[in-house]
Design a protein that fits this description.
The structure holds 3 protein chains of 3 kinds. Chain B is an alpha/beta fold. Chain B has helices spanning 8-30, 54-74, 96-109, 120-130, 146-149, 163-173, 189-204, 224-232, 244-256, 271-277, 300-310, 319-338, 344-355; strands at residues 39-47, 76-78, 81-91, 114-117, 137-140, 155-157, 180-185, 208-212, 237-241, 262-265, 286-288, 370-371, 377-378, 383-387, 393-397. Classes of the chains: A mainly alpha, B alpha/beta, C mainly alpha.
Chain lengths: 337, 403, 288
């Protein structure tokens, strides 16, 4: 048991180390660092997706919209209203949490596909507001000159590497929250809802409130990611909040592995890298990428992490059978959620 | 899907995947050799090569490739070394942040000193980079003056600012008895800025501006509704414009519903393209930008027919094609003058001198005769085109607006 | 008043197009429970194939639409076999992503074959008709009439013909239908073929009043999803009512409020309706 957990932590540490040393290994490669920063930013939003979709089983297609709210709260407050980045960032978190919760009150009355399309409409309305309410959002012209976060002491966020670590810090936070939720009673409650709402209800789970909170948590993650995105980019337009972004994020999480702790990170980095590689095909790239996406969902529906998961589980089950069968099997069932 | 813990090996494997990705990224980062001693000059381009604006992006790509081919035929010599010019294009689907990523990739991996981006969102996103992080000269193709307001020292604004058009356009059409202006532009960044500019100008000349019926030309399934609404207020002049083809369709719809007034067409729509999409008579009595074929520059004729041959007569050469053709040649000449292929600032500083030395075959549609301090390429014989009621083009000289 | 009549007809024509496109989508949903985000790209391909028959082959307009509908029916079947059939046991998130992949693919294919630039399709029905001072083009009247005729035929097909009845049977009770000897595979393919053919008819009708481009379907996608949700997923009468309702709301809002509001109204109506009735206007027994 002890050994098992420590090895597991070694695995996570390896990912962390890879992410931490990457910028030093890539000294002078600002472009690659930019890709890493972008992937990490998106990964934070994907963690939000993971809570509502991966754990709770609700497909929310408004995610790109809430990402956009995060972007615009930070962008508009720092440029037009002279706020500091940190206060604007805090505002973005509060605004996305509150609008997310309010939106959830109505959205979560619907179920399954209705919920999916309903939230898609919400996402699109958010996009329309951002792109057409010119007097407040500058419409299609976007916001330019968004400042970098104010640094502390020797930390200067206009350095790409500092910005990368800032994003990474929030990414680690998102991963940790997911990890903690999964291990806590909250996680079990959410998974019970995913499995069957009626069943969860009958065993005394407050399904409505829990879904509500999961939804608000997921939009808050999107808001955090959006706020960081604004600072990383410096210039943003409404297209950063389009419905397409939602599908991109959805792709990240499916490739990484729904409901897993490491899935969002793995998916975001792998797909970002994949898309960038296919750039060389220019207008032909989607002829290749389209079928690649389809093949991924058909042949690896559980995503990279989910697939590896199953593989490890099978191997361990085999080994467990060979050794002290009853004891190992018991711990197995306990741990595989 | 149990993740929480089946996962120790799995996490190690996930780490391996992550690490592998990073290594691969690093490898692809470190792989390119830097030019410098000679050989290749890379011109970068990030534009929409897929998605809704792909036609626009591909057109520009053709114009740039034509310039590259012609330059290689003539031979390029920088600081005594012979060079071949090469165009590297990346797709950004009109997304600002993708354009910026692409620009950084082109600058760092392909060592492109000059990078062209043809949309104002992408330009502004790229400007956040070339003011310190990555060094490249930005060939900015957007007539939105906002791209100069950022005071970016490494920007070269290619087309005329649309601010220059609104006053003369309004003056030409707002004759006696003409009072009401209908607004039917496209709801893009560009259309929105144009709409407010034209409205202001019209009001400053004591005209009445009607309801703003801007629609997104790319998402509306039927233009009849917005057109009917605009016509119901009985405008004397209608401002409109977006991509040429839907613009032509809206004009046709308006004429079909009985509109007889004039059109004030924003610079994104081109007469030569609209003529192919609707009965050209519908376009009579409107003002817009000068069709490329109407220029009488030394290279115009050869360029128009070369483009025609290249695309099999499928579409006419428009100013986004010709202006990119010109500016690629100008950028490379600036490298020759500056004696460097990788110092963006030196290249930028040399553009003024280079403008007078570019081979005449590259003078197609108002070759720049001056470069402003802010980096705006300008031609002193600047004109607008009015298509009169007989379908003839009349040209009126206009002044460049202050940047 | 003239303006109202004008916009009424514009709205009806738009509604006809929305209906034809939305019915295919709702059928696929009702039978297979697949939210097919690639439906808009089938519509787009339908327009291009019609264009191909019209210009490159040179058959008359109506025949071109018919031939294109057949071609697209085959494309629909292939889509079902190659993409959605292997996913039949997966949750709908996977269908959605696979559909997005298919959408990317179709758009790229159209761009490679026909180019990225806009195309214009000519219709033999030219000129306008004057009704109460309003000028309505013949093409729009044709759209309204065809939509009504096709919808009537479709209703007949589903209620009266053997093949159509199998669709309805599966829609109502999948297990029961297969016990009764109806092959779900055949029905799936039939449904996809029908949906793609209907989308093609819609596209062939609307193409002459708009332009062809590889992204023409993407703009429609969101709207027809709003329509079928509004009407109730899987409900054909719901899709018809929803289609006309949203089209009229869109046209009238942009006329009497503002064009930006017109763009948003479809989604605002959707959100408002679902807030009150979470299962749409014509809730059917699909909510299992």
């Amino acid at each position: 048991m002890t050994a098992r957990i420590s090895i597991q932590h070694v695995g996570m540490a390896l990912v962390a180390i890879a992410l931490v040393i990457a910028p030093f290994a890539l000294a002078g490669q600002d472009y690659v660092l930019r890709l890493l920063t972008m992937a990490a930013t998106y990964a934070i939003a994907v963690y939000g997706f993971n809570i509502i979709l991966g754990l709770t089983g609700q497909l929310s297609l408004a995610h790109g919209g809430f990402f956009g709210i995060g972007i615009y709260v930070v962008g508009l407050l720092t440029t037009d209203h002279g706020w500091s980045f940190w206060s604007a960032f805090l505002a973005a978190i509060i605004v996305t949490a509150v609008t997310g919760f309010a939106c959830g009150v109505v959205a979560l009355r619907t179920r399954q596909e209705y919920f999916a399309i309903f939230t898609m409409a919400v996402g699109f309305i958010i996009f329309l507001i951002l792109s057409r309410w010119e007097s407040v959002t500058h419409g299609m012209s976007g916001i330019s000159g968004i400042p970098f976060p104010e640094g502390f002491g020797i930390i200067d966020f206009s350095e790409p590497i500092a910005m990368y670590f800032l994003v990474l810090l929030f990414l680690a936070g998102a991963a940790y929250i997911t990890y903690a939720i999964r291990r806590s009673g909250v996680g079990r409650t959410l998974i019970a809802i995913r499995t069957s709402e009626d069943l969860a209800n009958s065993i005394g789970v407050n399904v409505g409130l829990n879904k509500q909170l999961a939804f608000a948590a997921s939009t808050t993650f999107a808001g955090v990611a959006g706020g960081l995105f604004a600072a990383v980019q410096g210039f943003v337009g409404p297209s950063s909040a389009s419905v397409n972004l939602t599908f991109e994020l959805l792709m990240f999480i499916l490739v990484g592995g729904l409901g897993t702790v490491m899935g969002p990170i793995v998916g975001s980095f792998v797909v970002t890298f994949l898309f960038e590689t296919f750039q060389d095909f220019q207008s032909y790239r989607f002829i290749v990428l389209g079928p690649v996406i389809i093949a991924l969902v058909i042949f690896a529906p559980r995503g990279i992490v989910g697939y590896l998961n199953a593989y490890v589980a099978r191997r361990r089950a085999k080994r467990a059978r060979r050794q002290m069968a009853p004891q190992a099997a018991a711990s197995e069932t306990k741990e595989v959620s | 899907m149990g993740a929480s813990t089946t996962t120790r090996t799995l996490r190690t494997l996930a780490a391996a995947v992550c690490g592998g990705t990073l290594v691969a990224l690093a490898a692809c980062g470190g792989g390119t050799a830097s030019s410098g001693e000679g050989g290749t000059i890379v011109i970068g381009y990030s534009g929409p090569l897929s998605g809704g604006a792909a036609a626009y992006g591909e057109n520009i790509q053709v114009g740039m490739q034509m310039a590259v081919d012609d330059l290689n035929e003539l031979g390029v010599t920088v600081d005594g070394g012979e060079y071949t010019v090469e165009l590297n294009s990346l797709d950004d689907m009109y997304q600002p942040n993708t354009a910026a990523t692409n620009a950084q990739r082109l600058a760092e991996q392909d060592d492109a000193a000059v990078i062209f981006v043809p949309h104002s969102g992408g330009i502004q996103a790229a400007q956040e980079l070339n003011s310190g992080r990555s060094e490249f000269l930005l060939g900015a193709y957007s007539s939105d003056p906002a791209i100069l307001e950022t005071d970016n020292p490494l920007t070269m604004m290619v087309p005329p600012s649309f601010k220059s058009y609104s006053a003369p356009f309004v003056e030409k059409l707002k004759t006696d008895g003409v009072e009401k202006l209908g607004l039917l532009g496209t709801a893009s960044e560009y259309g929105q800025s144009w709409t407010s500019l034209v409205s202001e100008e019209w009001e400053s000349q004591d005209g009445e501006v009607l309801t703003d019926n801007s629609i997104d030309y790319s998402t509306v399934s039927d233009f009849a509704g917005p057109v009917s609404r605009t016509l119901s207020e009985e405008p004397d002049v209608i401002f409109l414009g977006g991509p040429s083809q839907p613009t032509a369709l809206i004009i046709e719809e308006a004429r079909g519903q009985g509109y007889e007034g004039s059109f004030l067409i924003m610079d994104q729509a081109k007469f030569e393209e609209m003529e192919l999409f609707t009965d050209p008579e519908n376009l009579n009595d409107s003002i817009g930008v000068v069709p490329v074929r109407e220029y009488e520059d030394p290279g115009t004729e050869a360029f128009v027919s070369a483009f025609d041959e290249l695309v099999d007569g499928a579409r006419p050469a428009t100013s986004e094609v010709s202006l990119h053709y010109q500016s690629v040649a100008l950028s490379v000449k600036a490298m020759e003058v500056a004696g460097t292929i990788d110092d963006p600032q030196a290249i930028r500083d040399a553009i003024g001198d280079a403008a007078g030395q570019v081979d005449e075959q590259f003078h197609v549609s108002g070759f720049p005769t001056e470069v402003t301090d802010a980096g705006h390429l300008r031609n002193e014989d600047f004109q607008a085109a009015y298509r009169n009621s007989d379908g003839e083009y009349e040209f009126l000289p206009i002044e460049h607006a202050e940047d | 008043m003239t303006l109202f009549i004008q916009q009424l007809f514009n709205g009806l024509a738009l509604g006809g197009v929305y209906c034809l496109a939305a019915i295919g989508l709702t059928l696929v949903f009702g039978v297979l429970r697949i939210p097919n985000l690639a439906h808009g790209s089938l519509y787009m391909l339908g327009a291009y194939v019609t264009y191909f028959f019209l210009t490159a082959v040179g058959v008359p307009y109506v025949a071109a639409i018919g031939l294109a509908a057949i071609v697209l029916a085959v494309v629909g079947i292939l889509l079902e076999r190659l993409v959605f059939h292997p996913l039949r046991k997966s949750p709908h998130t996977h269908h959605m992503i696979a559909a997005v992949g298919a959408m990317f693919f179709f758009q790229a294919v159209a761009q490679v074959i026909w180019g990225a630039d806009f195309r214009r399709m000519e219709s033999p029905f030219e000129g306008t008709l004057s009704i109460g001072g309003a000028q309505i083009s013949w093409q729009r009247i044709i759209i309204i009439l065809t939509a009504v005729a096709v919808l009537a035929l479709l209703t007949w097909f589903i209620k009266r013909s053997i093949h159509g009845q199998t669709i309805e049977a599966v829609e109502q009770d999948r297990t029961g239908a297969s016990l009764a000897g109806i092959s779900p595979n055949t029905v799936s393919m039939l449904t996809f073929a029908l949906a793609a053919a209907l989308a093609t008819i819609a596209a062939g009708l609307v193409a002459p009043i708009n332009l062809l481009s590889p992204t023409m379907g993407a703009a429609l996608d969101l709207k027809i999803f709003a329509i079928i949700i509004l009407g109730g997923l899987g409900s054909i009468p719901g899709a018809i009512v929803g289609g006309f309702l949203l089209a009229l709301a869109e046209v009238m809002t942009s006329t009497y409020v503002s064009s930006a509001a017109g763009e948003a109204i479809a989604f605002v109506v959707l959100v408002a309706v679902l807030a009150v009735r979470p299962t749409g206007l014509f809730a059917k027994a699909v909510q299992r």
